[in-house]
Amino acid sequence: MKNKRVALVLGAGGARGMAHIGAIEELLARGYEISSIAGTSIGSMIAGMYAAGKLQEAKEWFLEVDRQTIFSMVDINITDHAFVKGERIIEELKNVVPDHRIEELPIPCSIVAADLISSDEVIFTRGSLFEAIRASISIPLFFHPVQRGKQLLVDGGIVNPLPLNRVIRNQGELLVAMNISGKDAMHLKKVEKSYLSKAAELLSENGFTLPEPILQLKARLDQRQSEEQADLSNQVTYLSMADRMSDIQLQQNTQLMLQLFPPDIHAMMPQYAYTTFDFDKTADIIEQGRILMRMAINQYEEHLSLL
């Protein structure tokens, strides 16, 4: 086997970021050495905790979290630009992982945020780990931005959802990505069959048929439903449209990064797999991350064996 030192990149995606924990555990179990790490949004949180040597403690904490716990940590503070102050969550995390200077961590760590004022990408490689994480996870309109001098910092996923170009990588090291914003298709509500259609199927299974007038009515209803199904715009609300536009932006920016900086090992979770706040499904998401990284490693090693 060739060099197994890796530069690991963890992407944005809310609760799907729990997959990063499983991905890291799989890499280590397979004998890979993580020599540097980078993350954005939830990926920055897991990256920072791993770099600080506290991933196991963080994992145990996340496994105890449910929706009620999450909402209990949400310090509501409605202003013109956000709903949540965000400090309570960070203080809770500090109980799990004490703050560190990024430049003093055992392995190089890069954390990505976005500056609302300049629209620039901001990369933390020095300074307070938790200030960097707090900035990187600040979802616009939800968390209050972090002010640093003349900068107003928010979620790094806006500018770089998979920072393959920001991880510190030495020559010969593998570039490994855990992408949790994989391309998907929008899930639209399904139009149920009419009761007449269901009745017709049930009668047909038992050797009966509906009277001709009822069959004609059934045909008209089926045609109408088919037309409703075809009119997809009726199935999209303002809220779902806004949410979907954000999804598409995240997916397209992720795809662009993958094309510009193709990783040696790429594990991918579809964006629809879990929602942003599915932290009560942490155990399942961790296991999915492990499985996805295992598949990606297998594919990479099989390719190597053919060379």
Task: Describe the secondary-structure layout.
Elements: E1 5-10, H1 19-29, E2 33-40, H2 42-51, H3 55-63, H4 67-72, H5 87-96, E3 109-115, E4 121-124, H6 129-136, E5 146-148, E6 151-155, E7 174-182, H7 195-205, H8 212-230, H9 238-260, E8 265-270, H10 282-306
Parallel strand pairs: 1-2, 1-7, 2-3, 7-8
Antiparallel strand pairs: 3-4, 3-6, 5-6
List keywords for this structure.
single chain; about 300 residues; alpha/beta; eight-stranded mixed beta sheet; 10 helices; globular
Short description:
This protein is α/β, with parallel strands linked by helices and 307 residues long. It has helices at residues 19-29, 42-51, 55-63, 67-72, 87-96, 129-136, 195-205, 212-230, 238-260, 282-306, and strands at 5-10, 33-40, 109-115, 121-124, 146-148, 151-155, 174-182, 265-270. It is built from 10 helices and 8 strands.
Quaternary assembly: single chain
Number of helices: 10
Number of strands: 8
- Main beta-sheet strand count, sense and barrel state: 8 strands, mixed
**What is the radius of gyration computed over CA atoms, rounded to a whole number of angstroms?**
24 Å
Strand content: 15-25%
Gross geometry: globular
Residues in helix, %: 40-55%
Class from helix and strand fractions: alpha/beta
* Straight-line N-to-C gap: 12 Å
Overall mean pLDDT: 81
